[in-house]
Amino acid sequence: MRVPFNRVAPHAVDSARSALAALADAVGDGLAVSTERPGLHALLDQHAAAVRDALGGDLRPLNVAVLAGYLEGLLTAASERGWQPVAGPIDWSDPDWLRIRLLAVHALARSLDPA
């Protein structure tokens, strides 16, 4: 059975929410830090706009399943290049491209589901 293109199966939504919750744990306090650091906030806005553009967010609304799929692809590509997540808190004073992109995905997910 196919799910209509504009609907997402409930189990897929649960799986997506789980992946995005794990992301929230991984990026920790990055959103709070970004409100205190204008440079980080600007980078976050740029990355969020790039993610929205990549996912066609101006043509159709983003949803948790689409963001989770993007996250999975991002982490797979990073892992293939040898990236490993850092244990412990992230130093947001000089984050790399990937961490800012992950934070942007988290920010977009929060904007969809602020709970």
In words, what does this structure look like?
The chain is mostly helical and 115 residues long. 65% of the residues lie in helices and 0% in strands. It contains five helices and no strands. It has helices at 10-27, 30-36, 38-54, 64-80, 97-112. The longest helix is centred in the N-terminal third of the chain and has 18 residues, at 10-27. The N and C termini lie far apart (31 Å). Mean pLDDT is 84; it is low at 1-6.
Features:
65% helix; mainly alpha; 115 residues
Number of strands: 0
Which bin fits the share of residues in helices?
55-70%
The overall pLDDT, averaged over residues, is: 84
What's the alpha carbon Rg, rounded to whole Å?
Answer: 14 Å
Assess the beta-strand content as a share of residues: under 5%
CA-based shape = globular
Query: Can you count the helices?
Result: 5
Brief overview, please?
The protein is mainly alpha-helical. The chain is built from five helices and no strands.
What is the strand and helix layout of this fold?
Blueprint: H1 10-27, H2 30-36, H3 38-54, H4 64-80, H5 97-112
